[in-house]
Amino acid sequence: EWNECWRGELSGWTILYRSINHRVDSKSLWLYRWYYSRTCQWILSLTITVILALAFIEEPSSLTITSDVRYRLPAWNPPCGLTESVELLCLLVFVVDVSVKSYLIGWKEFWKNKWLMAYILTLIVSLVDWIVSLSFFCKESVRIRRILRPFFLLQNSSMMKKTLKSINSTLPEMARWVIAQKTSFHRMAGSREIDNQQDKEWVVYFRNLPDSLTSLLVLLTTANNPDVMIPAYSKNRAYSIFFILFTVLGNLFLMNLLTAIIYNQFRGYLLKSVQSSLFRRRLGIRAAFEVLSSLKETPASSLKMCSCDQLSAAQFQKLFEELDKDAIKQHPPSPEYQSHFMQKVQFAFGHPYFGYLGNVVALANIISICVVLVMDADKQPSERDDFFLGAINCFFILYYLLEMLLKILAMGLKRYLSYPSNRFDGLLTVILLILEIATFAVYGFPHPGWRPELMGLLSLWDMVRLVNMLIVFRFLRIIPNMKVIALPCTTWVSLLVNWLCSFQVVFYAFAITGIMLFKGAVVPLGNTSAANTTNYNGTLQCGTYEQLEYWPNNFDDFAAAVVTLWDVMVVNNWQVFLDAFSRYSSPGVLLTFLLDQF
């Protein structure tokens, strides 16, 4: 009876305060808890991962050793119906997902939720396209549902939804920036086109307005600087003023202005979003307090403290704030020794200063490795004497082992392993010890002139380099002791995950689009027509796609398309890809590469 009364009161307060937007009856609350349980969310995340990973296996398959069109062997493509069956199972999971969400929020809220409506529309289009694929026995060249797959990842992440809304809020400011950029581009391109009437050497870059705009766009990313300036600058030094002014105006001013606009909008929107979230949370807690206070019969423990005094609204709010805090991890106790000597040993080696001494020793180890490597930098591997480096590594690894054992003695094994930094230290120390024992077993102990030949899987030099890398990696143990570095390192994981999700959504859509537009466009020189070659008297033109041997960068499969888009995004020689794909396919490739840059 009390539960029913509580639910009825809570429903009324939900309408008044709008703290929650889902059903509150017992069955719906049970379904709500089940849906947001770890198991269900893990299944949903696994389904999203599987449907996105299908692009690597579907035709055109990425299951080849190389993507180079000159050496690539025919890829294995799954039979029709194999990947489609897996995809159907994933789509059915999404159907269940959207059905549960729609039921929990109710019919009225469903029509207000644009994400759910878009979710259902995406599923309908995907299922229809799936049926069309089976009707054509998987031979169709265009599959619309593949471009829509990133939406499943997008709609499942609240942070990515906020990011998309923030981008949407920047569109008016970005439109003004585009207008300003377009105006400067047309003025600069027009001036160079007029100059070109008298300078025939610049016909490569400024023979007409579209080519002028393309050359200036590439110059805006500084990818073709100073190549685009040299022909004119070699004739008259005054021409450099044009390119300097354009670079300063476009790259150093307008591009930074765009970054400032996006940053300002993101900061304002995210701050507003956090404030709104905190306000709704406090409002919901106050609504719950008012509901419980208005009930005539309440359990004795619901609104009373241990002293049997009733809680005020402020105390009720503070109680939930305390419950929301992360629990402080309690480390296991250290062992209690009866011996006075062992107590002194425990105090000495359990003191933080002993850890600081280990950091100093690790730094000394890195410095000694650097000194030896610099001294041997100009020597051939056969002329190097690895005695000093081997002896140094042996000494420091023995110290690391002794340090680990003394800490375990002072803290106890359970307490030692309860600290992440100790687990990190211990793991690397064990690996270093195993490598050192393996080195001694195969090559013997270090001695002057220690240069044995290759034996087994790794040479001595390879094993020493591996040990050196692990020692340098072990020095990261100092990060928890540096608060300036420790705080960013504790938050980088969540930020990295959000960035990777955004990166995956954008690259996935562009990669699928690139496959549909440019699949099979790049062919080796022996199979291409004379119109698409850059040969000049039997010699490849310097700086072209063919001369630089960029053949592995293509859109013939999903993995190759992702790598190609990455190379374009880095903007190092992206004009080479633009020139090649415009020759091999169509000049419209500029739009695809330009959007990838943004």
Automatic annotation (TrEMBL):
What InterPro entries has UniProt attached to this entry?
A: Ion_trans_dom (IPR005821), TPC2 (IPR028798), Volt_channel_dom_sf (IPR027359)
Give GO cellular component annotations, separated by semicolons.
lysosomal membrane
Ion transport domain: which residues? 47-266, 356-585
Q: Which domain of life is it from?
A: Eukaryota
Q: How does it sit in the membrane?
A: Multi-pass membrane protein
Compartmental location = Membrane
GO BP term, example: endocytosis involved in viral entry into host cell
* UniProt KW keywords: Membrane, Transmembrane, Transmembrane helix
GO terms of molecular function: intracellularly phosphatidylinositol-3,5-bisphosphate-gated monatomic cation channel activity; ligand-gated sodium channel activity; voltage-gated channel activity
Spell out the PANTHER family in the cross-references.
TWO PORE CALCIUM CHANNEL PROTEIN 2 (PTHR46768), TWO PORE CHANNEL PROTEIN 2 (PTHR46768:SF1)
Q: What is this protein called?
A: Ion transport domain-containing protein
